[in-house]
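Our consortium's second objective concerns turning raw sequence data into structural hypotheses that experimental partners can test. To show how far this objective has progressed, the report includes one record in full. It was chosen at random from the queue rather than selected for favorable results. The single chain below, 308 residues long, was entered without modification.
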Amino acid sequence: MKNCSCSEMQGSVRERTLEIFATIRSRCPVLKQIFVPDNIWPEFQKWHRQPDKAAFHRSILLLALERGYLGRVTSAIHRYLITAGLPRTEVRKQYLKDLRERWMYSSAMERHRKFRSFFGKVVELQFAEWLESQGWTVSELEALQEGPDIGAKRTERRDTAFEVKFIGKEDFDFEKLLESIKDEEKEGAGGWSASPYVAANYLLFRAYEAAKQLKKTTYDRIAVLVISENDHTWFRFHDQIKNNWIDWTNPTYFSGDDKWEEFLTRQKTRYPNLKDDLKPTLESLNAVWILGHSNHQFNLKVEVPFGA
């Protein structure tokens, strides 16, 4: 990353974003070899010359360039996936494929879903880098081998496995956003949120999901819930987190609306004993961490310890 063009401040670039990005990309192996390689570069340019008017989607790379923190997006990829100007040979092929920024080439809702998947991988690597800034040493990455998202060590702790779950704008909220764009009389986020109890349920489910994925490891286990603060997502969960709505020692789902029940029914294809299995699965964890994610930086909000 040191001295790479992606980390240089560009000043005001708004009117020439794509042109300046092209110059930086030509010199940055993360942009040219991983995020936007030559085989998708023409399509990337074409799409961004025709602004999206359905949901106003834009590349996270171009937005980060305009806002002055492109280096925050690329830093972890430089650190863990690049060597001698090329992707490390150990990087798993599917992981490389998932990091291509090509989520925007479909309908608005499908773009939204693909973006969450793409950005989740970016956040995972950014979290590994954040861990190192907190005194941990990263020893394993799912990007390089089978296993947990991240394996890390710290002097006073046992080896620890982290499973990272990124929580961004959900489909329901996005549908309302599309409606508000079409109808200028609908302003702001008022009336967008589903039941606050459903939001608490969703946090529990994502922690459960992470705990299930950590079942095979012999390391200590921490489920990491990363909540976006760059849209209205954090406000959906703020009160529930601040006021301790979730009893982590005796977790149970609140009664939900029809959409929540439909969601649970879909999940039972993967987790047949979802409700009965909730408490013992969460008890297999050593902790749940909840972090905010804003402008590609982390803010640790809550640490919930368990007795595993």
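The partners drew two points from this record. Residues 171-192 have pLDDT under 50 and may be disordered. The chain has two domains: 1-105, 132-308. Both points have been shared with the crystallography group to help prioritize constructs.
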